[in-house]
Amino acid sequence: MTSPPAGFSDEILDDEQVSREHRDLGLPPLEAEIEPESPQVLQLALWAVILLMATSAIYLGGRLFLPNNLAGGLQAIQDTLHNPMFWKAAAVGLLAQSIDGALGMAYGITSSTVLMASGAPPAVASASVHIAEVFTTGISGCFHLKFGNVDQRLFLRLLLPGLLGAVLGAVMVSVLDGAVIKPYISLYLLGMGGYVISKVFRQLKIRRSEPRHVGKLAVFGGFVDAVGGGGWGPVVTSTLVGTGQDPRTTIGSVNLAEFFLTFASAIVFSALVGDGPWPIVAGLVLGGLFAAPFAALLCRRLHARTLLILVGSLISLLSLYNLFSALSG
User: Which of 164, 149, 325 has its CA nearest to residue 254?
Assistant: First the structure.
């Protein structure tokens, strides 16, 4: 019998093994080890998330059917299903959500990198990712609230500065010429790919100190997330955990704040980008719906370090391709 490839486990990894790897690498914990807690003071945030998600669903449905009658709406759906970009986006959504489900990070940067490599302009790629993420980040935020994973003080310190950075980034990437900014975004995503790989080679070292410059960090994280299509979680979560914050409540607080940033970015992109991203948004959402079993398989059969190397290498190689295409074109 042949031995499994390097990085693959010959046995299914149990929850304890996966959780230990995630703690060592500073990745989000498994849902099974989340400690339930009553989210008393954050009920308003929970209802805001639910209301904004419902509003988004109504808006998207209205955008599809209100300009036309039922037959026109059905024709729009049929046209979308025949759009090659829809199916490319569905494959990207499946891949990115599988990675995110196994690692708890990298959905945005994976999606944006692959979409740009498939020919989507930077603004359309980032817009599509953020509009699709309204629902995934909203559901994630609700669960973190339900299980008591949100620190109210940290959440509020992240929220307004992060919103400012996200709106500024979304406006910038929407109004500038895509050909001009694509090399810079490719460089940023190349750096993020290297950052993902670097997590393999360093142990998480916790320093017990009060986090400084949280507002500045949130502005920067929100800005690069909107411009590059992803990066809020890797930038903000890793920095805060490295200053000694509890990983569970840090991840929960950052995830909840991410929903509001994503929603704000989606509004800006919807107003400025136009009709370009809608087939891609539909594909990302559809592909993500089928990702759960693949995420579970990756989580159980691949060590976290192996998956980090694969994801980081994919992002880096595609970013190099995007950079070369932008400079040579």
Answer: 149
